[in-house]
Write a structure and sequence with these properties.
Layout (H helix, E strand, L loop, with lengths): L4 H6 L6 E3 L3 H11 L5 E3 L4 H5 L13 H12 L16 E6 L3 E7 L9 H16 L2
Length: 134
């Protein structure tokens, strides 16, 4: 998301990430990735559980779609960094609007199953447009 941060700002949205490690893990992650947007810590997985995010298992490593995601990541110059407390946790992407509205949600089904940036930007633009019409 770091490389798309300006696009989100132009759409009137802010970015935040939630990590499941401790403060030291978050500090190292921020240093390695160079993200400047807020990085929140959910060490006890409260937000993770509330969002309904899932965990993978060892068989997910063999899925064809995970293999494609690994190839895309390698081609993009990404590599595996330190493993967190739960290396099988799956992520998600969300767009929230004013008034506690869930505008968009993508729950990862396997590793590398990330929401399309275009879908996230469209949802962020929808929130921005609705706020401008009030």
């Amino acid at each position: 998301m770091r490389e798309h941060e300006n696009e989100f700002k132009q759409a009137g949205a802010g970015l935040a990430a939630i990590g499941l490690g401790d403060a030291n893990y978050a500090r190292l992650f921020r240093k390695e990735t160079g993200i400047a947007f807020p990085l929140l810590i959910d060490e006890n997985r409260i937000a993770y559980k509330a969002a309904g995010l899932k965990s993978a298992n060892i068989l997910h490593l063999l899925r064809w779609d995970n293999s494609a995601a690994r190839s895309r990541a390698r081609a993009g110059g990404h590599q595996q960094h330190r493993l967190g407390v739960n290396p099988f946790q799956l992520g998600g992407s969300f767009v929230f609007g004013p008034g506690n509205r869930d505008v968009y949600a993508h729950l990862s089904k396997t590793f590398g199953d990330n929401a399309a940036v275009e879908a996230l930007l469209a949802a962020a633009g929808q929130v921005s447009n609705q706020a401008g019409n009030r």
